Every structure is written in C-alpha cells, then in structure tokens.
Amino acid sequence: MFGYVTQELLLGFWTTLQIFALTLLFSLPLGLVICFGSMSRVTPLRWFCKTLVWIIRGTPLMLQIIVIFYGPGLAATWAQGLSEQNALTSWIASWEVMDRFTSIIVAFSINYACYFSEIYRGGIQSIPRGQYEAGQVLGMTRGQIFFHVVLMQVIKRITAPMSNEFITLVKDTSLARTIAVYEIIWAGQQFITMHGLLWPLFYTGAFYLIFCGALTLAFGALEKKLNYYKV
Amino acid sequence: MAYLNVRNIQKNFGATRVLKGIDLELERGEVLVIIGSSGSGKTTLLRALNFLELPDDGTITLDGEVLLDASDKTMRSDEEIRKNRLHFGLVFQQFNLFPQYSVLDNLTLSPRLMAKSLPKAERKAKIQAIEENAKALLERVGLSEKAGSYPCELSGGQQQRVAIARALALSPDILCFDEPTSALDPELTGEVLKVIRSLKDDRRTMIVVTHEMEFARGVADRVIFMSDGVIAEQGSAEEIFEHPKSPALQHFLRLSKEK
C-alpha cells in the first residue's frame, strides 16, 4: 500500500512541480514589467500598475483563481444574452473558458508577479544614486547601467525575500484544487474517500518539506556565491 | 578663446537659486581648484560640467565646440548628453566603484561596452588595448597587484585611486574631482592627493573641488572661491591664499586654518 500511495502522490506532486515552475517562468519577468510600470514617469501607467498590485495583493489568491476560471465564461454568457451587440460585447461573447490548468497558471503568474514587482522595486530603489551616476559619467546608457551595474546588486539584495516567496509558492500550489486541478493534496485526499485512509494526506507534508528544504539549500548556496562582494 | 569656456551657468532647485550665473575659463593643462563653504554651489557646478545636473541657463564650450547650450533643447537628448559628457571625467567623494566587479573590470566595463559597436574584426584588438591600458593605469596609481581584488577588499584610499584610474580609462579631456578626500580617514588622504599631484605633473587639465587648503595651494594654477552661488573671488593660488581681498574669503580661510 505504501508503494502505491507514494506512486499516486508522486503523480500529484508532478502537477505541483509544473505549477511551481511555470508560475516562476512567467511571473519573474512579468514582475519586472509591473515593477517598471509602477516606477514609470507616465502617470496613467503608474496608476494602472499600482492599482493592479493593490487588487492582487488585497484579495485572496483562491478568489483570484475562481474569478479567472469562471469569469470569462460568465461574461461571455452575459454578453451573448444581450439584445444589441457592439464590437466590445461581441468580442466578450466570443470568450471561452480556459482549461483548468491554464487558469491556474494565469492566476498564479499574475499573483506572484505583483508580489515580485514590489520586491524588485524595493531592491532597485535601495541601490545608491551614486552607482547610476558613476555609470552615467562613464558614458553608459540607461540600459547598460541597469543590466551591467544595478541588476547584479539588486539580485544580491533581494535573494532573501525572494527565497521566502519561492517557498510560499510551493505551498500555495495546493490552492489549485479549488478548481479541481489534480495536485498532491487532492491526490492525498482521495485516499480518505476511496480507502478510508488519512495518513496519505499527512504523508504529502513530507513531499513539501523535502522540496522546500532543497530550495532553502539552493538559496543558501546562491547567497554564498554572491558573498564575494558587499553592496 | 580659452580651452574651456563656461558662460552664465544658472541652476535652480525649485525656488532655490544654487548657481546664479557662473563664468569661468580654463586653459589646457591648467588645474583649477574650487573652494568655498558647503552650500556655496561648488559641487553643483562640477555636476553641471559633467551633465549630472542640466543647467537652466548658460553654455559650456570646449576647444571651440559647444557641448551645452541650455537654450537649445535638442542638446538635451540622452544620446547627445552621453556623447558630450565623455569629454569630462568625474571622481566622486564616495568613490562609487561597482562592488560586483573586480578592480580591473571596474576600469574596463564601460570601454568594453563601447567597443561592442565596433565591427567584429576590430573588436578583439580593441578589447586587448583596453585591458592593457587599464593595467597601465592601475600601475600608474600604484595598484597593479590589486587588479583581481574587489572594492570591498580595499581601503578607502585604494578605492579612490581605483576610481581615478577608472575615470582616466576613458581618456577625458578634463578630469574633475568632487571632494576626493572628504570620505577618507586623514591618514589615507595623502596617497590620493599624491596621485592627483602626479597627474598635474603630466599636464592634465583638471578641476578639483576640495577642502584640503594646503593641497589646493600646491596643486592649483587658478583658484575660484565660491560663495552663495556666485564666484566671489578668483585668481592665482598666491593671490587667493596670500592676498585675499574680500572679507568673505578672508573669513573662510581663517575658518579653514582653525580646523
């Protein structure tokens, strides 16, 4: 039985890992975009990004998952029922429900991008002005200053808060079961209804622990690697 | 016309008039020292010459070429400013070395990035020349053996000498110093001042903002005393230090001696 349970949980954990990896793949760069937006001199853009961050950080991720999964379908049904159609409503009427897994990736990516954007912003704004000015008087462009001077220093400064977010994300993946995506918690819970066994659910904790432990070690190694200089 | 011609530089921060119309001239190979109490505008003037502050009014002309005309908005594009500021080098009070790069890489980073625009065939030779030049400059400031070290491993004096070498790596026409020893412990100022003196011996054109009066007197061909956003008095080192005319300068010199 233990072997069978482990096998089933590994299957669920595979989905957990996919959510984790894909969320990071999209949210890490998207966070940078939102971060630049919220520091932009263009006021409407700055307001848009700040409002987005407020909404996403101000509501539960579980609710966001539900809205992103059910929202488009509801809106389409409403638009189809209208007696008069214009370009906008007929576009909305054409919306289709995303599949469950895609909805999860979209919701998680937007959610984490907003948190990351604030961490990036803190990191970028903590770099002394003198670093920018040194780059400027050496004739570097804004882009060169950012990528060759500032970025590495920002990465060093945000390693600790980012490791926090990564570890939180591992456990947040369990929210995918809200819209019936088969991840490890769901896999564990099945044994309660199908076999009357509770311990497989407890056993899922071991998977999380091992994975988070590995992440902690990886971040520790990264911090050590970046220790050759001080900022 | 003088090598460097600065005319009527004005700069306001909000309602505060920091520079109220500065005129100055500098010949090639001369060292100009700017003295004055804090808040007199000397750092702002230096930053204006390096385009870190854009003046509200005035012109900067170098060797007959107008580098900045505050009334001409086309001269304010990033590209234009970036090109023109390369005529000047600036050494900061706080060194501002790039912490994540080795000493040698601090010197070569910007020249390397510029070499990227060269055709591939020339690039390799150029990068080799950049590295050799950087090594020669490190030797010049007495830090050859520190090429592979990181800024955090160096003393303040050593960091400032690296910063000087980094500024020289771009071969500026005029090298500016913004209180280069103010952030250093007293026992470390000597090594930095020695490097600046040796640059004078090479007939390098320099503008130095400093509070080190002894050093200023020794290194300056001309001295400007700034007070409240204007040049209150200027002249040779001897005129300024031995025969100050204005009461403000006399007062300032007396205070500096007491320190």
Describe this structure in words.
The complex is a heterodimer of chains A (231) and B (259). Chain A is mainly α and 231 residues long. Chain A contains nine helices and no strands. Chain A has one domain: Orthogonal Bundle (MetI-like fold). Chain A has helices spanning 2-38, 43-58, 61-80, 87-93, 100-125, 129-137, 142-172, 184-195, 199-225. The radius of gyration of chain A is 22 Å and the shape is flat. Chain A starts with a helix and ends in a 6-residue tail after the last helix. With 259 residues, chain B is an alpha/beta fold. Chain B has a single domain (4-100, 172-258), classed as P-loop containing nucleotide triphosphate hydrolases (Rossmann fold), CATH 3.40.50.300. In chain B, α6 (186-201) links the parallel β7 and β8 (206-209). The radius of gyration of chain B is 19 Å and the shape is globular. At the A-B interface, α6 and α7 of A face α2, β6 and α3 of B.
Q: How do the helices and strands line up, and which of them pair or pack?
A:
The complex is a heterodimer of chains A (231) and B (259).
Chain A: H1 2-38, H2 43-58, H3 61-80, H4 87-93, H5 100-125, H6 129-137, H7 142-172, H8 184-195, H9 199-225
Chain B: E1 4-13, E2 16-26, E3 31-35, H1 42-49, E4 57-62, E5 65-69, H2 78-85, E6 88-91, H3 103-115, H4 120-140, H5 156-168, E7 174-178, H6 186-201, E8 206-209, H7 213-219, E9 222-227, E10 230-235, H8 237-242, H9 247-258
Helix pairs in contact in B: 3-4, 3-5, 4-5, 5-6
